[in-house]
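Continued from yesterday's entry.
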Amino acid sequence: IWRLLFVAALAVPIVIGIAIVIARRMLRPIDPIIAGADRVASGDIDVALEMRGRDEFSDLAGQFDAFVAELRRQRSEIERTDAETTELLGSVIPNRLVDEFKAGNRTISESLRNASIVTAIVAPKPDASVSEDDVADFSVGMATGFDDLADRLGAERLDASASALVYAVGLGSESLEVEATLRFAVELRRWTDRSIAEGDLPISVGIGVAGGDVIAHVVGTQRLAFEVLGTPRRLSEALARRAAPDGVLIDAVIAGRADRRWTIDRVDGLEAIDGVPLDGWRIVLDEALAGDGD
């Protein structure tokens, strides 16, 4: 009996040790699956186990990879939809307000001091035969070109329609950024002159510039719009409509603060706005385009 007990005492630890080794070898294939699950739980879905075999662990790893691949597909779809939404909102409201609107704020309103408003209006040349679709197509291309210039020169698009684009320079600045505004307006003029000449289009673009304080706010929820209200907004549009074909007109505020390097001429006889006389000054484009106002 003592001999049997002695043998049993020696055999039991050996058997237990062998069992542990076998169990570890059997469960070792699940370690990568556990590690992958931990990575997914922490937000990392760029995981692929790619375990080969015909056992239960390989099947489980294959199901895990399929699940993570579906997560990646859904993430890509969400990112694509978000990018499309951002682009769509950016065509209606200023880019700096897109994130705020997407976060749920539907009552966006702001008072913008010392804003220089630049409005460009597209219209057929007098007695020209051009369709509304041609004007709209040119406006789309103009919006792309103007937006590139705005990004480069520090301007911001406020509004857009089939025939008009509205930008602001120096929003919230302590003083009007007249120099930057005039440079932006001249660059817009340069872009439109080149595009119209290259396309041999019977289209003219008038550009108006006015400075002062405005109020901007988002309007609507189902049909979104962004409105800019105030005298500079109204004046810049009026000046753009009254600009000579392919010209730039600025208001008294901008003209009074323009550097002497800019050559500007007063324009008399402009059509009044609601009975109120309209004062305007014309930038001498030959000199401005040749030297960029320097």
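--- second protein ---
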Amino acid sequence: APDLQSFLLRTAHMEQVSGALCAAVIGGDLSVEQCQSHLMLLAQHNLFVFAVDAKGGWYRYHHLFRAVLVQRAEQSLTSAQMAALHERASLWLAANGQVAAAIAHAVKAGDVQAVANLVRDGRYDRLNVDDWAALETWRALIPQAMLEQHPQLLMLDAWLLSRRALLPEVSRRLDAIESLLAASPMPDDELRLLRSEVDALCTQPLYWAAEIERCIAAGQRALRETPLDYAYARSVTRVFLAGALETVSATEADALMAEGLREARLQRTGPAESRELITTGLLCWTRAEMDRMVEC
């Protein structure tokens, strides 16, 4: 049927589909129920469409069937029409928490600003699970000129550089972020959050520069101001704050790490918990407390 053919051509660019996603992408020509009915019919008749969940809410097209459909869609639809399909897919996916897929469609739509916005808003979920491959890929999608205009995107760049211990580059990014924040019209709560993230990131170069007092002050500010769901920033802060405190008071360093371990377990953030345990073990090793280190 012509309407079914049109449905297939306008939804083939998506790796997985549901009635709601298809209805959003098609743009009002079909209801959610009609789209879901098309998918169920195709799957029931084994027409190269397969359910991917037990409830039959999500489906995928056979990869060869999909490749043919995409080729035909590119031949029959204009580039503007294809971009609009990708844009609507990106909007729906972002609104429903599928940020990686939303970014992929924004890229295909050629909407660099949408990509930047999605990376800005989605970066912290990936940081919290140490998904560096995704973050490196997302960073590469953003032009340098655009990156330099947005403190949140510069912050992502700084975290990536920090992971590679490129501390002079980290410091340069932090200086650029501070300059942007000084002139920023963003609300006070957003400014405070970004400055707390700057404090968290500062602890690494300050610790390695042996600026112990400044490291402790920045780390303590970061832990006061960063929210609990910023698990990556908080756990990294504790790594270097504990090292700085160790030079002043081993008791304070131990208390800090014990608090961090409780927090990570309550928040169920595995990578953060691992950092807390490793740091505690390193503190024990430097003190020759081998029994405690084994317990960690």
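The first strand starts at residue 17 and ends at 18. Strands lie at 17-18, 49-51, 58-61. Will compare against the first tomorrow.
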